């Protein structure tokens, strides 16, 4: 589903170049739930932005479902992103004066795809994320956990190939965070949704099938729940 080859990202600050990603190689299979962990500044959020086509690498390739993202023109990349990639952000990124239903439908307006069939999809998503009966409520009147549920439904409304989540529980308390993570698990399990989630929280990462541990712009460890030394590898990294 996702193949990353020799991915490098550098940022220029005046005359000085800072290498944030250092030749990353990564493969993510269809239907995997992958958590990316690492200390602040390790490059994990930069990687997520590149996977989502929000930025371009300095070098290397990003292939998503056989589409070479970094070789697309800007307009092509924008359309591909809108139709194939769902985003969930730490700060929700909702339109506060619009209702739950209007926020979820927003990506469909941009693509001219708001049909009666899609309206049914929106209703189904609202039920799936536990917001039944709140279709017409403005999102600025919702709790943080409810707003993140709206953001998840919006990210899924176009049936994306990949769901990217950047610290999706970072603004939530543990109880609300668990509810959101259970939702991710539900869509991963029931719909075989491919999910890549950046998090600093070991509790959140524990919901994933696989944890990629970042350090200093490179993959330090790539461990699976099926690995017999899973807990040991994780403890060593967190030490």
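Sequence proposed for the structure above (239 residues):
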């Amino acid at each position: 589903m996702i193949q990353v080859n020799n991915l490098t990202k550098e940022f220029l600050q005046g005359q000085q170049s800072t290498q944030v990603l250092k030749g990353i190689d990564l493969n993510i299979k269809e239907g995997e739930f992958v958590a990316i962990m690492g200390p602040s500044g390790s490059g994990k959020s930069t990687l997520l932005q590149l996977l989502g086509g929000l930025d371009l690498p300095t070098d290397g390739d990003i292939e998503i479902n056989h589409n070479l993202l970094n070789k697309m023109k800007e307009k092509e990349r924008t359309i591909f992103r809108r139709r194939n990639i769902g985003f969930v952000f730490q700060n929700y990124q909702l339109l506060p004066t619009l209702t739950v239903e209007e926020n979820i439908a927003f990506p469909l307006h941009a693509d001219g795809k708001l049909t009666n069939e899609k309206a049914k999809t929106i209703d189904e998503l609202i039920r799936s994320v536990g917001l039944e009966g709140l279709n017409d409520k403005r999102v600025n009147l919702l709790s943080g956990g409810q707003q993140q549920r709206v953001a998840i439904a919006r990210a899924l409304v176009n049936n994306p190939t990949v769901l990217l989540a950047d610290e999706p529980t970072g603004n939530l308390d543990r109880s609300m965070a668990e509810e959101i993570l259970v939702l991710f698990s539900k869509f991963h399990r029931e719909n075989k949704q491919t999910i890549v989630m950046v998090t600093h929280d070991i509790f959140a990462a524990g919901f994933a099938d696989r944890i990629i541990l970042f350090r200093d712009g490179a993959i330090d460890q790539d461990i699976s729940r099926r690995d017999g030394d899973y807990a040991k590898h994780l403890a060593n990294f967190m030490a």
